[in-house]
Amino acid sequence: MPAVVVVKNVQVINETTQSTVDVRRERLMMRAFQSPLVGPLLRRLANPQHIVEEGMAFWSSRLMLTAVERGVFTLLAQGPLTAEEILDELGWHPRAGITALDALAAAGLLRRDKSGRYSNSGRASLFLCRDKPSYIGGLMELSSTRLYDLWSGLDDLLRTGTPAAEEEQGENEFFDALYRDPAALRTFLSGMTGISTGEVTLLAARFPWKRFGSFTDLGCAQGALSVRVALTHPHLHGTGFDLPVVEPIFTDYVKSFGLDDRLQFVGGSFFTDPLPSAEVFSFGHVFHGQSREGRRELIAKARDALPRGGALIVYDAMTPPRKSGLQFQSLLSSLNIMLETRDGYETTTTDCADMLRASGFGSVKVRHLIGPTSMVYGFKA
Ligand SMILES: C[S@@+](CC[C@H](N)C(=O)[O-])C[C@H]1O[C@@H](n2cnc3c(N)ncnc32)[C@H](O)[C@@H]1O
Q1: Same topology for domains 54-127 and 182-380, yes or no?
Q2: What is the CA(95)–ligand 1 centre distance, in A?
Q3: Enclosing H/E stretch for 320
Q4: CATH entry, 54-127, from 1.10.287.3510, 1.20.120.450, 1.10.645.10, 1.10.10.10
Q5: Which atom of ligand 1 sits closest to the CA of residue 179?
Q6: What pLDDT does 43 receive?
Q7: 378 CB less than 6 Å from ligand 1?
C-alpha cells in the first residue's frame, strides 16, 4: 500500500501519488542508456566522466607536482629501482607511496617492469629530470610552492579584483618581494625556463634572425630565449637584461651551454635604466604582468632605443582572435597573472599588434608558437 503523506505546502515525492520529475521520460531515457543498441552512442554523448575529470584535475596535478618536487624522476634518472628502494630514498610511507608510484605509472610518467621495478617513461626522462638541460620541472616546483595555494584565492579575486599574492596587496613590488628569498628566486627563474623553452625554441626558427646581428632579451630570467636563439643562429650576439640579482643564475645557465663568448648579462630595470643597445629587443611573459600604460611605456622605450629597421618581439599567452582550444589556456593564464599581480592580464594578439602599430612599428606579424603562446613582432619604421 502506498504511504499516505500529508504535508502542507510541500510537494509530495512519492511515485504512486505525485512526482516532481517526469518519471516516464526518465525511464525511457534510462532504457535507451542501458540499451545494447543505442546505449554506447548515448553514453559517449552524455558521459559525465569528462566533467568529473576536469573538476577533480587537482588530484592529478597535486600528485605530479609533489613527484617532481620530491625528485622522483630525478632519482630514477640513474636507473630502475624497486618500490622499496624509492620509498626508502624519498622517505615515503608504503601505505600511500606505492599507490602514488602506480598512479604515476598509470599516468604514463613511470614504467613498471615485470619484476616490479620502476623507471622513467620517455617524456619524464626528457623533461622531468633536474640535471638535464631539457628539464621543465622548474615550472612544477614553482607551481607547487607558489601557484597551487594562490589559486585557492580565486573566489576572492572574482569578488574583489584583488590578487591573492600577499606582496601584491601591499606595495606593488612583485619581483622585489619574490627575489628576497634566494631559493624562491632560483625556483622562479628555472620555472620560467620550464614555461619558455618550447616557445623560444620555435621563436628562434620563426623570426627572421638572419637579417640581424644582435639582440637584447628584456626580462631574460635564466636566459632560455638567449640560449635557444644563440644555439640556432651562430652569427648572433645577445644580451640578457634583467634585475641585477638574476645575474649569477643567468651566467651559470649560459655557461652550461658554452655560450658565454656570445651572450652577456646586463643588470638594471627596463623602466628606469637605459636599454642595452641591439637590433632586436624581446619581451617574453613580461607584458602580461603590466598595466596597459606600463606596456605602452615599454614599447615606446624599446622603439626609441632601436635603430631604424630594428625589431621588437613580444610573446605571451595571448588569446588568438578565433575561438579555439587555445583560448581556454590563455584565459586561465590571465586569471593566474591576476592572482599574482595587481595590474596584469593576458591580452589578445590583435590588441598587442595594434599597440605596436600605434607606437610606430610596421610590417607587424602575429605568429603562434606553442600551446597558448603567440608572438607579435614589428619593425621600427
Ligand atoms: C615572467 S618573467 C619572464 C622571463 C622570460 N622572459 C621568459 O619568458 O621566460 C619576467 C622577468 O622580468 C624580469 N623583470 C621584472 N621587472 C623587471 C624590471 N623592472 N627590469 C628588468 N627586468 C625585470 C623578472 O626578473 C623576470 O625574469
Answers
A1: no
A2: 43
A3: none
A4: 1.10.10.10
A5: 25
A6: 86
A7: no
The residue whose CA is least distant from atom 1 of ligand 1 is 285
The DSSP string of 126-180 is HHS-TTSTT--HHHHHHIIIIIHHHGGGHHHHHHH---SSGGGTSSS-HHHHHHT
**Position 15 pLDDT exceeds 80:** no
Cα gap 112→144, rounded to integer Å: 26
Give 147 Cα–ligand 1 centroid separation in angstroms: 17
179, 181, 286, 345: residue to mutate for ligand 1 pocket, most atoms within 8 A of CB: 286
**Lookup result for grid cell 599574482:** 340
Stated pTM of the model:
0.86
**Ligand 1, from 243, 280, 281: best to mutate by most atoms within 8 Å of Cβ?**
243
323 vs 188, residue with greater confidence: 188
Check if the beta carbon of residue 324 is closer than 8 Å to that of residue 154. Answer: no
Residue 315 CA, closest ligand 1 atom number: 8
Q: pLDDT of 278-320, one tens digit each? A: 999 999 999 999 999 999 999 999 999 999 999 999 999 998 7
Query: Does ligand 1 lie within 6 Å of residue 273's CB atom?
Result: no
Whose CA is closest to atom 7 on ligand 1? Answer: 284
pLDDT of 343 above 70:
yes
**Ligand 1 mutation pick, 175, 203, 253, 316, max ligand atoms within 8 A of CB:** 175
Domain ranges of the chain: 1-47, 54-127, 182-380
Q: φ and ψ at 2, to 5 degrees?
A: -65, 145
SS3 letters across 11-57:
CCCECCCECCCCHHHHHHHHHHHHCCCCHHHHHHHCCCHHHHHHHCH
261 close to 251: Cβ distance less than 8 angstroms: no
| Cβ burial, residue 316 (10 Å; 0-12/13-18/19+) | buried
The reply to whether 288 belongs to the active site is yes
199 C-beta closer than 6 A to ligand 1: no
* Whether the Cβ atoms of residue 203 and residue 154 lie closer than 8 Å to each other: no
* Residue range 182-380 in CATH 3.40.50.360: no
The rounded distance, in Å, linking the Cα atoms of 377 and 354 is: 11
Ligand 1 geometric centre to CA of 341 (Å) = 13
